[in-house]
Amino acid sequence: MNTTFTATVLGSPRIGPRRELKKAVEAYWAGRIDADELLATGAALRADMWSQQRAAGLDSIPVGTFSLYDQVLDTAAMLGALPERVAGIADPLDRYFAAARGNDTVAPLEMTKWFDTNYHYLVPEISPQTRFALDPSKPLGELAEARAQGVPARPVVIGPVTFLLLSKQVDASGPLLDRIDELLPLYAELLGLLAEAGAEWVQIDEPALVGDRTDDEIAVARRIYDELAALTQRPAILVASYFGSLGDALPALAATGIEGIAVDLVAGSDAPAWVPGLARKHVVAGVVDGRNVWRTDLEAALGTLVTLLGSVGSLAVSTSCSLLHVPYTLEAESGLEEPLRSWLAFGAEKTGEVVTLATALSRGRDAVAGAVEAGGSAVRSRREDPRLHDETLRARIDALTSGTRGRSEADVRRRAQQGLGLPVLPTTTIGSYPQTREIRLARAALRKGEIDQAEYLRRMRSEIGDVVALQEELGLDVLVHGEPERNDMVQYFAEQLDGFFATQNGWVQSYGSRCVRPPILYGDVRRPSPMTTEWITYAQSLTGKPVKGMLTGPVTILAWSFVRDDQPLAETADQVALAIRDETVDLQAAGIRIIQVDEPALRELLPLRAAEQQAYLDWAVGAFRLATSGVADSTQIHTHLCYSEFGQVIGAIAGLDADVTSIEAARSHMEVLGDLNEVGFDLGVGPGVYDIHSPRVPGVDEIEELLKEALAAVPAERLWVNPDCGLKTRGTEETTASLRNLVEATRRVRARL
Ligand code: GLN
Ligand code: ZN
């Protein structure tokens, strides 16, 4: 029926090697370019990507993983499942972007994490009114483009099971998966059209099958793929999984009539060689890590591949997932020194590794001996580098973690902290203040060499002076310095710690047009000198009120970096924690009495499978406690959490044992307080009473109302008053007005206690 292929990747980055797509999309939104120009930029990026992949030697190339915003939104558009509220927008591009970002009259779709990656997708809303209908123009259009270019194109679409499992049901209840039979004819039609247009293979992504799935869900998947396989007019079907093991879903898929299955052999532990049904399938083995930046141990990967050779029908080499999650190419990094550089592989280099491995399989290892040996010596050099094995550091951690990781009892601490002299319902903010034009100009001027470090310092201090004065004027109780010197809450620390390095151009898409440049954590983490004390003590010198020191926690630093893969994450977390701990001790010695250690990403690293979650939460909590237990009882530790549904981590929040936890709550009516009560949480808590995600200024009455709701769940002695998150994305005027209202509402509530 088809020819198999030997070397592929599951998807490609799309934001552009120099973030061309980001710039074009933003220019289109701002009205600076028209739709034709935007679409032409997209087409040029696709064409370049395909020709590079072909030149590298892939013999099957994913087509359709390009997106102007998000692949799940593309799927919703393809299936006629955009929300009703955008249906009236005539222009398809405007309609698409309205669903993504909202406009003056419609709210956007919600956004959430794409499995356990740092990519965020838009959550389709499906209601009983949704009438699915196929719009095949995107997959067909991109297929035609690729074929015109002579590319061995393999269209990629998100599968119906994953699409429904990731969507949100509105105005109805019951599992959305029940509606799969409405989607089946659309996929059948699409497969027919793709075959007609010349596709030999189609890749249907079903990453949702690597999570904990019920037997019923797996049975649905099995039935759907049996039905699709039974079609006569269709390409060969490759069902792709990634981000973990398929587990029971693997034999179920293998029992269907599909031709191929892609398995993630990096994040997952499936053993395709032991699944009898695979003896007649094309297995696409994801042995090259698609979401981390390390060079592959080719010898080890080859070993894995060879064990599969005799037991599966045919074999192709691939990345473990789409290359969406890594930067384009190392070639854009001129500042990277050896041997560090030799340890890495970004998108283009990983593609090369796939081809090398495929060549070794087809022509023997000798055909690529040079590449395999070069890879081997890089892997060895990394393994043996002393920067990855600091025995003194490791001994220090062992000594610190051999006992308990905790502090004194909460009551003892509470008494010791009474000296802070705080009023009931203390008011505070989360750390950052608006990033003003002056701050941005100063940063740019420093980068361009127009001002020197001393002048930059002077300007940041003046900014801190303004922020402290503003807080005093507003009457807040616990002040912050405002974080003007920080570009980013992780990068700022990564830049000052040993064991990390920064890339110049290592951008990856976070969502839509937003890109991040995660630091690379390659070695043992050490803090050569204090990172924040100078700033915080300067702020403290300007006021008699306590100033909170502001640090990022170990889990968040890991979650927003590329991390080493040669030791358990828990070990790396403890190293970062130790650096933060040393910083808290220095802050305390410098006279700072309150220190906040932010962990907004606590939930982000939560494993997909329930069986692995507790172990994660244990080490995550342990790292936080290591970071925060070096200070005296009289030093008050705060933490801050946001971006999440806290459900699965609520017990862990209590486990952090921070004296005060500020937590996002304004939009969810203080619900989190009830959840915290249920797990016996009895420490200080500041549920956000000002939603900083919106420019709206909350009124005094509204904040008062929220405080009353909070007081229904938490006694006044434990309640703090603060916004939901940092203020850096907001404007000065609206934050000033909002904080003024927050202080006033607190006064009113206090007066009636
Ligand atoms: N302290 C940080 C700030 O205020 C916290 C940011 C966050 O939670 N994402 O900006
Ligand atoms: Zn936050």
TrEMBL record:
<dbReference type="GO" id="GO:0032259">
    <property type="term" value="P:methylation"/>
</dbReference>
<feature type="binding site">
    <location>
        <position position="725"/>
    </location>
    <ligand>
        <name>Zn(2+)</name>
    </ligand>
</feature>
<feature type="binding site">
    <location>
        <position position="604"/>
    </location>
    <ligand>
        <name>5-methyltetrahydropteroyltri-L-glutamate</name>
    </ligand>
</feature>
<feature type="binding site">
    <location>
        <position position="598"/>
    </location>
    <ligand>
        <name>L-methionine</name>
    </ligand>
</feature>
<keyword id="KW-0489">Methyltransferase</keyword>
<comment type="similarity">
    <text>Belongs to the vitamin-B12 independent methionine synthase family.</text>
</comment>
<feature type="binding site">
    <location>
        <begin position="430"/>
        <end position="432"/>
    </location>
    <ligand>
        <name>L-methionine</name>
    </ligand>
</feature>
<feature type="binding site">
    <location>
        <position position="22"/>
    </location>
    <ligand>
        <name>5-methyltetrahydropteroyltri-L-glutamate</name>
    </ligand>
</feature>
<feature type="binding site">
    <location>
        <position position="483"/>
    </location>
    <ligand>
        <name>L-homocysteine</name>
    </ligand>
</feature>
<feature type="binding site">
    <location>
        <position position="483"/>
    </location>
    <ligand>
        <name>L-methionine</name>
    </ligand>
</feature>
<feature type="binding site">
    <location>
        <position position="642"/>
    </location>
    <ligand>
        <name>Zn(2+) 1</name>
    </ligand>
</feature>
<dbReference type="GO" id="GO:0008270">
    <property type="term" value="F:zinc ion binding"/>
</dbReference>
<dbReference type="InterPro" id="IPR006276">
    <property type="entry name" value="Cobalamin-indep_Met_synthase"/>
</dbReference>
<dbReference type="InterPro" id="IPR013215">
    <property type="entry name" value="Cbl-indep_Met_Synth_N"/>
</dbReference>
<dbReference type="Pfam" id="PF01717">
    <property type="entry name" value="Meth_synt_2"/>
</dbReference>
<keyword id="KW-0486">Methionine biosynthesis</keyword>
<comment type="function">
    <text>Catalyzes the transfer of a methyl group from 5-methyltetrahydrofolate to homocysteine resulting in methionine formation.</text>
</comment>
<keyword id="KW-0808">Transferase</keyword>
<keyword id="KW-0028">Amino-acid biosynthesis</keyword>
<feature type="active site" description="Proton donor">
    <location>
        <position position="693"/>
    </location>
</feature>
<feature type="binding site">
    <location>
        <position position="664"/>
    </location>
    <ligand>
        <name>Zn(2+) 1</name>
    </ligand>
</feature>
<feature type="binding site">
    <location>
        <position position="113"/>
    </location>
    <ligand>
        <name>5-methyltetrahydropteroyltri-L-glutamate</name>
    </ligand>
</feature>
<comment type="pathway">
    <text>Amino-acid biosynthesis; L-methionine biosynthesis via de novo pathway; L-methionine from L-homocysteine (MetE route): step 1/1.</text>
</comment>
<feature type="binding site">
    <location>
        <begin position="19"/>
        <end position="22"/>
    </location>
    <ligand>
        <name>5-methyltetrahydropteroyltri-L-glutamate</name>
    </ligand>
</feature>
<keyword id="KW-0479">Metal-binding</keyword>
<feature type="domain" description="Cobalamin-independent methionine synthase MetE C-terminal/archaeal">
    <location>
        <begin position="425"/>
        <end position="747"/>
    </location>
</feature>
<feature type="binding site">
    <location>
        <position position="598"/>
    </location>
    <ligand>
        <name>L-homocysteine</name>
    </ligand>
</feature>
<feature type="binding site">
    <location>
        <position position="640"/>
    </location>
    <ligand>
        <name>Zn(2+) 1</name>
    </ligand>
</feature>
<protein>
    <recommendedName>
        <fullName>5-methyltetrahydropteroyltriglutamate--homocysteine methyltransferase</fullName>
        <ecNumber>2.1.1.14</ecNumber>
    </recommendedName>
</protein>
<dbReference type="InterPro" id="IPR038071">
    <property type="entry name" value="UROD/MetE-like_sf"/>
</dbReference>
<feature type="binding site">
    <location>
        <position position="664"/>
    </location>
    <ligand>
        <name>Zn(2+)</name>
    </ligand>
</feature>
<dbReference type="GO" id="GO:0009086">
    <property type="term" value="P:methionine biosynthetic process"/>
</dbReference>
<feature type="binding site">
    <location>
        <position position="560"/>
    </location>
    <ligand>
        <name>5-methyltetrahydropteroyltri-L-glutamate</name>
    </ligand>
</feature>
<keyword id="KW-0677">Repeat</keyword>
<feature type="binding site">
    <location>
        <position position="640"/>
    </location>
    <ligand>
        <name>Zn(2+)</name>
    </ligand>
</feature>
<dbReference type="InterPro" id="IPR002629">
    <property type="entry name" value="Met_Synth_C/arc"/>
</dbReference>
<dbReference type="Pfam" id="PF08267">
    <property type="entry name" value="Meth_synt_1"/>
</dbReference>
<feature type="domain" description="Cobalamin-independent methionine synthase MetE N-terminal">
    <location>
        <begin position="7"/>
        <end position="309"/>
    </location>
</feature>
<feature type="binding site">
    <location>
        <position position="118"/>
    </location>
    <ligand>
        <name>5-methyltetrahydropteroyltri-L-glutamate</name>
    </ligand>
</feature>
<feature type="binding site">
    <location>
        <begin position="514"/>
        <end position="515"/>
    </location>
    <ligand>
        <name>5-methyltetrahydropteroyltri-L-glutamate</name>
    </ligand>
</feature>
<feature type="binding site">
    <location>
        <position position="642"/>
    </location>
    <ligand>
        <name>Zn(2+)</name>
    </ligand>
</feature>
<feature type="binding site">
    <location>
        <position position="725"/>
    </location>
    <ligand>
        <name>Zn(2+) 1</name>
    </ligand>
</feature>
